[in-house]
Amino acid sequence: MSQPAIDEDDPSYYPPSFVVQPVSGTHKATIICLHGRGDNGKHFGQLFLLAMGISTDDTGTKPSIYDSETPLFTALQSDLRDTKFVFPTASRRPVKAFKNIPQHQWFDILSIKDQEREVEVQYEGLRETTLNVHGLLRESIAEVGADNVALWGLSQGCASALIATLLWEGKPFKACVGMCGWLPLRKGMSDHTAAAKADMEDDDLRTYKGSEANMALDSQQSTPLQTARNYLTDILNLPPGSDASMSNPLEASLLSIPIFLGHGLLDDKVPITLHAEAATLLGRLGFSIEWKQYMNLGHWYSQSMLADIASFTRKQTK
């Protein structure tokens, strides 16, 4: 019986990932790396690995290290020799800003610089992409353990990786790395956490310090992270998880995932202010953030950024 034809323009269809096996032949770690809008896993993955001194064929089964005297290459190759790379490809979604012509994108957005403009167009893609990325994380963790799995992303891939991390409920993975990206739905999360904080501070019951009523109220108050997660779960129409009654151990587990954010000062596609706003809110939610800005860099990565990422991930030993 023949299989039904695949509709590659179906937004729910995510093409197979481009997977590059470890150079050493020994699989000890996995990096899942999400491309930017309009790209695909294979094209992005091959260019990205070349920047780190690793070349590969179209199958990803024969990676090799090419010679370089640059210290950065040596450091990265040593770190990544036993790492499998997974480069997913986003589904093809109609781009509302361009007459609904479909292209590979993790979610639709009308304007990066004015993200509140018809913000609802982002919801479906963010929901489906989050579920897809969570599936990839679970598969990778089953193979090598959570401590050996990292989630990276560039541009819209960074944006998607951050949302997927915020909504993750499994074992804490090694790190989340974002390059030249932003935090989607940041204003909504910020507004809701600020309102929740104001409500908590204004509640008259809190004047009865130490009373049973106040202790009961304290136990019901949501932390900033809980509030942000509840907002995302609701707005993206995701299945309810444990976020509504997030236990202290679960929250501590999620917040143990360190986040690196790097951004070029000359980026004309994603303003540097969005990078700073993302770092600020994530820090307020309780995450450990390392963020850096790079001179003379536009909307891309650089040798300096990759060196900082290598140094950052090397420090993350749980």
Automatic annotation (TrEMBL):
GO terms for molecular function: carboxylic ester hydrolase activity; palmitoyl-(protein) hydrolase activity. InterPro entries: AB_hydrolase_fold (IPR029058), LYPA1-2/EST-like (IPR050565), PLipase/COase/thioEstase (IPR003140). It comes from the Eukaryota. GO terms for cellular component: cytoplasm. Pfam families: Abhydrolase_2 (PF02230). SUPFAM superfamilies: alpha/beta-Hydrolases. Residues 76-195, 254-315 form the Phospholipase/carboxylesterase/thioesterase domain. Gene3D superfamilies: alpha/beta hydrolase. Belongs to the AB hydrolase superfamily. AB hydrolase 2 family. PANTHER family: LYSOPHOSPHOLIPASE-RELATED, PHOSPHOLIPASE_CARBOXYLESTERASE_THIOESTERASE DOMAIN-CONTAINING PROTEIN. This is Alpha/beta-hydrolase.
